[in-house]
Amino acid sequence: DRGDSPGARDSLRTAVLTVLLLVVVMVLWMLRDVLMLVGYAALLAFALEPVVAWLVSLRTRRGGMSRPFAAALVMIVLIGLGVWTLVRVVPQVVTELAGFVERAPDNLDRLLAWAREWAAARGWGAFGDVRSLDAAALLRSSGGALLRAVGGALGNIGALLGLALVPILAFYLL
User: Fold this and answer.
1) pLDDT tens digits, one per residue of 58-88
2) According to the model, what pLDDT value does residue 98 have?
3) Which pTM was predicted?
4) Phi, psi (5° rounding) for residue 156?
5) How high is the pLDDT of residue 135?
6) pLDDT of residue 5
């Protein structure tokens, strides 16, 4: 017995537990991206479990497939549906985006004209006198920011690879 008081031991224990809790929280924060991927994979595996179990149950009735084969089949079908959806959706989105960009200056000019008329009807003539606000110039000046945003969204290869790992992790969980 070193003669420590019970209050000092409780304070030391509280301090050590607080430091350990802070370290655990810091480690979890640093691993948040990995934990999110594992969480998504677990949710996907949980959602697909009944389908895999049904395919395996066919084995007992009709000489069906093993669990790994059933899980692989389900994941291949799921990935195929995802690729098919992307092949169908991406060209349409690109076409719509190109049309939007093509029509943007005219639409912005119409919006500005409407806003000027609306302001003039309410006696706010100062807004209607703004002639230097040109839609094409506004789009040109904001084009760099738009390109940087699109580049940032598409340039994050790590996130795309992480997204590609979710079905693989789900397969192993199944």
Assistant:
1) 866 666 678 899 999 999 999 999 889 889 9
2) 85
3) 0.54
4) -85, 80
5) 58
6) 75
Q: Are 55 and 64 in contact (CB under 8 A)?
A: yes
CA distance 59 to 52: 11
Helices (H), 31-134: 32-62, 67-121, 125-128
Token pair listed for 61 = 């009735």
> The tokens of 109 are what?
């000019």
Report d(CA 164, CA 166) in Å as an integer.
Answer: 6
Quote the CA–CA distance of 102 and 137 in Å, as a whole number.
14
In whole angstroms, give the CA distance from residue 111 to residue 9.
71
Task: Work out the angle between the directed axes of helices 32-62 and 67-121 (0-180°, nearest 10).
Answer: 130
Phi and psi angles of residue 31, each rounded to the nearest 5 degrees, phi first: -100, 15
Residue with the two structure tokens 């409780």: 10
Query: Which residue positions in the chain have pLDDT lower than 50?
Result: 1, 128
Report CA-CA distances (Å) from 8 to 1, 11, 21, 22: 14, 5, 20, 21
Which amino acid, 126?
Answer: A
Which of 69, 36, 81, 64 shows the shortest CA–CA distance to 174? 69
Instruction: Please report where in the chains the tokens 């009807």 appear, as a residue.
Output: 121
Of residues 77, 74, 79, the one with CA closest to residue 49? 74
Tokens of 67: 């669990």
